[in-house]
Specification:
12 helices, Uridine Diphospho-n-acetylenolpyruvylglucosamine Reductase, domain 2, Uridine Diphospho-n-acetylenolpyruvylglucosamine Reductase, domain 3, eight-stranded antiparallel sheet, binds flavin-adenine dinucleotide, 415 residues
Length: 415
């Protein structure tokens, strides 16, 4: 990969950063630069390894003055755009996690990962709306929506956001919540890193002393019956229960988490539809143990209103490993009266394949997508309704008219 030559005046940029940022500033050619940038980020001109809000502000202001694009990297799990020639701001070292058990909240820095939050909340019988993988970053996941095993019961992680502090494109540190910058508060609950660099989030925690969870494996010919059962009965399943069926050429796996009492009884009809398992690991477990159940990082992600017989037949005949998950519950009916821009909440099923799409499988998909599982940034708009996308662009225009924050699922300012 070629390293860009610096624009005239670039020495000034690095001088400014080295003067004002206390964190480390890395340039091409230095060993730490190679370690700190993610391969997917291409060749940023400078990497800033921030350790404080002041570092974040100094980096944003430098990018703003120099007209340089800025990308943020916490874990690199959600890197979708190169930041060639721009500034790459690393937040991994700002990983504070502070649980308030009385208020059932957690406050995190921009480098925090879900595993650390789950571990800090668990002793109090509390859990966040984290995903299936502990190493995923709290901020990137939440700003992109955040689909959890607990989402049918409590909503998207973005719905659990109480307050954010972020540095906007002009270098101001602002607080966004229901009362302060409510437009910004709306936009960041699903509009990703387009509106500023988040320096802290306060999130709601939920009473989850334990869950009933695990996975059961069946012969491959169970795929048709179990998917047909899910298609017909998904709406009858309790909101506490979240199920995914992974149909593959060798076997079918039912993964599930039930956040309450009576998990086995709620799950049994689905297991019965699949027949006799070759293995069954379901048991009562700590919430931190749901990471052992697994997940499918998708290359293809699609949403459906119905799981039609043709779609089920296409899945079964595809020879691919396809994960189907039902939605509904608090995903479709958020508690908040003005939930953020995460759209397509009424999709009843989502599907993930760790391979390129097979047309027959996606033929009846809605065309909608979910930002956290979208690799193709040219399709960013498909994660939103046209109305929500328009509102996001208006808010982007107000807070980042020059599109400084564009190394992401970019929402462009209005022309
Ligand atoms: C193994 C794996 C499992 C996953 N499981 C789930 C799941 O169960 N549910 C789900 O919803 N998603 C899941 N995801 C998707 C994940 O939520 C996204 O990839 C998310 O973007 C990761 O965020 P990050 O901070 O870890 O990644 P990063 O690459 O560090 O950040 C991703 C993007 O988030 C934005 N961002 C990060 N930090 C900031 C900040 N401080 N200020 C402003 N913007 C910021 C930036 O645009 C950045 O490009 C999974 C991903 C992987 C790789």
């Amino acid at each position: 990969m070629s390293i860009p030559t610096y624009a005239p005046g670039f020495d000034q940029v690095t001088h400014e950063l080295r003067t004002h940022a206390h964190g480390r500033v890395h340039l091409p050619g230095d060993a730490e630069y190679e370690r700190q940038r993610d391969a997917l980020h291409g060749a940023p001109a400078v990497v800033v390894d921030a350790e404080s809000v002041a570092d974040v502000r100094a980096t944003v202001l430098t990018a703003h003055r120099g007209g340089l694009p800025l990308a943020v990297l916490s874990t690199g799990h959600g890197t979708v755009a190169a930041s060639d020639g721009g500034l790459l701001l690393r937040t991994s070292r700002m990983a504070q996690v502070l649980v308030d058990p009385d208020r059932r909240t957690v406050r995190v820095g921009p480098g925090a990962r879900w595993g650390e939050v789950v571990a800090a909340a668990e002793p109090f019988g509390l859990a966040p709306l984290s995903g299936d993988t502990p190493s995923v970053g709290v901020v990137g996941y939440t700003l992109g929506g955040g689909l959890s095993w607990l989402s049918r019961k409590y909503g998207f992680a973005a719905d659990s956001l109480i307050r954010a502090e972020l540095v906007t494109a002009n270098g101001r540190l602002v607080v966004a919540d229901r009362h302060r910058h409510p437009d910004l508060f709306w936009a960041i609950r699903g509009g990703s890193g387009n509106f500023g660099v988040v320096t802290s989030l306060e999130l709601r925690l939920f009473p989850v002393p334990s869950v009933y969870g695990g996975r059961a494996e069946f012969p491959a010919d169970a795929a048709g019956p179990v998917l047909r059962y899910l298609a017909a009965h998904a709406d009858e399943l309790p909101d506490e229960l979240s199920v995914s069926v992974v149909a593959g050429p060798e076997s079918v796996v039912i993964r599930a988490v039930h956040a309450g009492e009576g998990g086995r009884a709620a799950l049994q009809p689905l297991l019965d539809a699949a027949g006799t398992p070759t293995s069954d690991t379901f048991r009562r477990m700590r919430y931190s143990e749901v990471s052992t159940i697994g997940g499918t990082p998708p290359i293809t992600f699609a949403m459906y209103d119905e799981l039609s017989p043709d779609t089920i037949a296409a899945i079964v005949e595809s020879g691919l490993t396809v994960e189907v998950k039902h939605c509904g519950g608090a995903i479709a009916h958020p508690a908040h009266d003005d939930p953020g821009p995460v759209s397509h909440r009424d999709a009843r099923f989502v599907m993930k394949i760790a391979a390129p799409a097979a047309d027959a499988i996606t033929a009846t998909a809605t065309g909608g997508s979910f930002l956290n599982f979208l690799h193709d940034t040219t399709r960013t708009h498909t994660a939103f309704t046209p109305e929500n996308h328009r509102r996001l662009r208006e808010i982007k225009t107000a807070y980042d008219p020059a599109n400084l924050f564009r190394g992401n699922h970019n929402i462009r300012p209005l022309a």
